[in-house]
Amino acid sequence: MFFYADLHIHSKYSRATSKSCNLEEMAQWAQKKGLGVISTGDFTHPAWFSEIKEKLIPDGNGAYRLKPEIEKQVLISGKPVRFILSVEISTIYKKGDKTRKVHHVVFAPDIETADNFRKKLDAIGNINSDGRPILGLDSRNLLEITLNSGKDTFIIPAHIWTPWFSVLGSKSGFDSIEECYEDLSGHIFAVETGLSSDPEMNWTVSSLDKYRLVSNSDAHSPSKLAREATVFDTEANYYSILNALKTGNGYVGTVEFFPEEGKYHEDGHRKCGVCLTPEESQKLNGLCPVCKKPLTIGVLNRVNELADRKTGEFKPQTAGKVYSLVPLQEILAEICNVGAQSKKVIFEYENLIRKFGSELSILQEVPVDEIEKTHSALLAEGISRLRQGKVIKQAGYDGEYGVIRLFNEDEIVKKKLCKP
Predict the structure, then answer these.
(1) Do 353 and 205 reside in the same domain of the chain?
(2) If we measure between CA atoms, which residue out of 311, 344, 308 comes closest to residue 329?
(3) Residue 217 has pLDDT above 70, yes or no
(4) Domain housing 119
(5) Sequence-separated (6 or more) residues with CB below 8 Å from residue 335
(6) In a domain, 58, yes or no
(7) Does the predicted TM-score (pTM) go above 0.85?
């Protein structure tokens, strides 16, 4: 029986987080989404670390859960959510003649090890002002500190293709994991592909064959959990996940955004409203045709630059299954012709969760005839198209999310899911 894990999350103490949240809300949303394991995020922040210690208890093998008196108040599915300890660290530093900006997700198996790590970073930089600390620390040295903080700690390079803050992005200056982590690169065994790429894109780069590909939501609010997730067929705990990522035993695959929906998929200039394919921007020498300034080179272009295979030519042994999905709230928003956070969409979303259990089960498993019978033929048709990969794509660029649609506009004019 496999479970879904979302291991890259931000707390209310991250400056990047737009919505305040707590562990109880995270657990509630994880159940709605269908996640078995989520990360705490931001354990280096003093206030959040205190909340973690106050509200979570060990559940065995590196997993934590809410204290019983808290858990019973938020339990929806009957299956308690497990937490594992994680934090995203931003490192900005000079190496050679370039400024490097790399994000990393750090994992620890227990409170004591996490505290050791916190103390080591506190001696180097400021961990108090932001849940995602920014440190002038070489990535290789961050990995060394992680490994020295306690047994079974590890790092996963975050959203590795993002232009601005990643190990392989167009502005990183690195062309391989080895260049970034140097003599300690052997301790990296998994990489996070990010919202703007999918496994098939990564399979074109042979230097990534030895790494397990993981996907996570990089959620900045609880409702954004499970935009992406990693799928395991193991026990739902830290050490089983660690072993699956190292060996492949129990690693099933990933739940993915369609990469075009990611906000850095293609090249462009958001201020100028310019979105270009790699071929188009190449013809313009990487300059915006409107303002003539350099374009933000997106993930697709950067992957193509490092690729030494054609798309679909090879699938490495480390590869898992790929489930490409669109968040349920976005599907409802399209059908209702309103925003994804509108009252109409939230009402319909909660109604569906009560009927069918979780978002991931609705998107992947619930028979479409059941959805049609108990809810709507239009929603059933949309989910059927999603499962077949029949989607309409408008690519994201330069910080602007792309749009994935399941219907042409004229298809839903006469059939409304939401009442006016």
Answers:
(1) no
(2) 344
(3) yes
(4) 3-260
(5) 376, 378, 379, 382, 407, 412, 416, 417, 418
(6) yes
(7) yes
203: CB partners within 8 A, 6+ apart: 209, 309, 314, 315, 316, 319
Domain count, the chain: 2
* Kind and range of the H or E run holding 200: helix 199-202
Surface-to-core class of residue 163, CB atoms within 10 Å of its CB (0-12 exposed, 13-18 middle, 19+ buried): buried
Separation of alpha carbons 190 and 193, rounded Å: 10
- Verify that 187 and 65 share a domain, yes or no: yes
Based on the fold, state whether residues 39 and 171 are members of the same structural domain. yes
Same domain for 55 and 198, yes or no, is yes
Question: What's the whole-number average pLDDT of the chain?
Answer: 94
Contact between 391 and 404 (Cβ < 8 Å) = yes
Q: How many beta carbons lie within 10 A of that of residue 398, not counting itself?
A: 22
Beta partners for 10? none
Percent of the chain scoring above 90 in pLDDT: 90
The neighbour count for residue 274, using CB atoms within 10 Å, is 20
> How far is 311 from 201, CA to CA, in rounded Å?
7
Give CA torsion, residues 397, 399, 405, 409, to 10 deg: -90
In this predicted model, what pLDDT tens digit does every residue of 397-409 receive, in sequence order? 999 999 999 999 7
Question: What is the CATH number for 113?
Answer: 3.20.20.140
The string of DSSP letters for 252-277 reads: EEEEE--GGGSTTSBEEETTTTEEE-
- Give CA–CA dist 299/68, Å, rounded: 44
Q: Is 141 found in the same domain as 13?
A: yes
Residue 299 CA to residue 259 CA, distance in Å, equals 9
Same domain, residue pair 45 and 165: yes
Q: Please tell me whether residues 256 and 391 are part of one structural domain.
A: no
